[in-house]
Write a structure and sequence with these properties.
2 domains, nine-stranded mixed β-sheet, four-stranded parallel β-sheet, single chain
Length: 381
């Protein structure tokens, strides 16, 4: 029988559970740790078949047998760090560091740590300092550290970057990651992994920011649909905000004044400012259709995964709701992505924040329904 070391996954997030499930199916012994309760659940094929998502497992978690975090991690040869991050701004790095320390305190000699959250330039140096200070061991000698930044959205790539701080190549680890990503694993040094991921994020989201800025000039004007197609009309707020966490982490790693700082800051400012353009579109609709704010209701349709690692979308959702309420007053979050059929003396404007939400809303569309697609042009249907 082949050797199968214990694997611990810290963080009952969507990404963490998806990873754990993928390697459980290969016969590996995997425990997933809920960082809020500090308890680990030993997974098996029956559990992963019964609970297809992290949300499903969380609902029935009290019914499953669990063991303390320290026990799970101290017996693991591999530790994967998949926490749910809900802080933003200056508090995010403190939140991540606190959870990282919580995860690594119980580790033993010769453990391999895999870090999938994005880091900025030289960010992994801080992690290695934390590892060595917390454990009293040395990375590369009796601890092994890998940086595997997971894409924050549909960024096309045929390879998964794995930053390797160690001198050896781990075939067992490579097999697990290959099963999870279904991609070729590209082993590089940690610095190269940082730079490659920063470049990938900036190429993708600076392009989106450019589209958003150009499209601001189209508000209130009739624009040829053939031109709209060229500006990613199927790119919604859900896609636009995918990389905010990554960009903010990159921003926090940069210092001084140089073109890269300006590029990152400008991209973040453009994405964060999209909500204002969307609200301007709502105001334009009210003016054009002679609707009073007191007789208008806004319904925001944005289906979010509340268990994903990054929490920036939740923050953007809350801010959009707050800003709309300052102007309209009657604003609701769509719990079920269908149109209301209840009689009302108010005109409802639905805002579809993802492609999925738009399709669900448009199924029950009528001539009287106003739907705004939260895409670069803020199209009105």
């Amino acid at each position: 029988m082949s050797y199968s070391p214990n694997v611990a996954v810290y963080g009952l997030s969507t990404e963490g559970y998806n990873f754990a499930s993928s390697i459980v199916s290969a016969g590996h012994k995997v425990s997933i740790i809920d960082e809020s309760s500090k308890m680990g659940i030993l997974l098996n094929n029956d559990i992963t078949r019964t609970y297809s998502t992290a949300s499903d497992l969380i609902e029935d978690q009290p019914l499953l047998e669990a063991e303390p975090l320290d026990s799970v991690i101290s017996s693991a040869s591999y530790l994967f760090f998949f926490p749910k991050i809900r802080k933003i701004g200056h508090e995010v790095k403190i939140d991540i560091s606190s959870k990282f320390i919580d995860a690594i305190k119980p580790i033993n000699k010769d453990t391999s740590i895999v870090y999938p959250l994005p880091m900025g330039i030289a960010g992994n140096e801080e992690n290695i300092d934390i590892l060595e200070h917390t454990t009293g061991m040395t990375v590369g000698e009796n601890l092994y550290y890998y940086y595997m930044p997971l894409n924050s959205g549909p960024i096309l790539s045929t390879t998964t970057i794995l930053g390797n701080f160690n001198s050896k190549r781990d075939n067992f680890l490579e097999g697990m990651l290959n099963r999870f990503t279904n991609q070729e694993i590209n082993f590089v040094d940690v610095v190269s992994a940082e730079l490659a991921y920063v470049s990938r994020i900036l190429r993708h989201y600076s392009g989106i920011a450019s589209v958003l800025e150009v499209c601001k000039f189209a508000t209130g004007y009739g624009v040829d649909n053939r031109i709209v197609d060229n500006f990613h009309k199927d790119l919604y707020l859900d896609d636009i905000t995918n990389g905010l966490h990554d960009l903010r982490i990159i921003q926090s790693s940069l210092h001084g004044s140089n073109p890269l700082v300006y590029l990152v800051n400008g991209t973040i400012k453009s994405i964060e400012g999209y909500s204002k353009n969307l609200i301007d579109k709502v105001r334009y609709i009210l003016k054009k259709r002679d609707l009073k704010a007191s007789k208008t209701k806004i319904s925001i349709s944005w289906t979010l995964d509340v268990n994903e690692m990054r929490g920036d979308k939740i923050g953007v959702y809350t801010l959009l709701e707050s800003r709309l309420r300052d102007y309209i007053g009657d604003v609701e979050r769509r719990g079920k992505n269908t149109l209301d059929n209840y009689p009302s003396d108010k005109t409802t404007i639905y805002i579809a924040c993802s492609k999925t939400d738009f399709h669900l809303l448009s199924k029950n569309n009528s001539a009287e329904t106003i739907i705004i697609k939260a895409n670069p042009f803020c199209e009105v249907i």
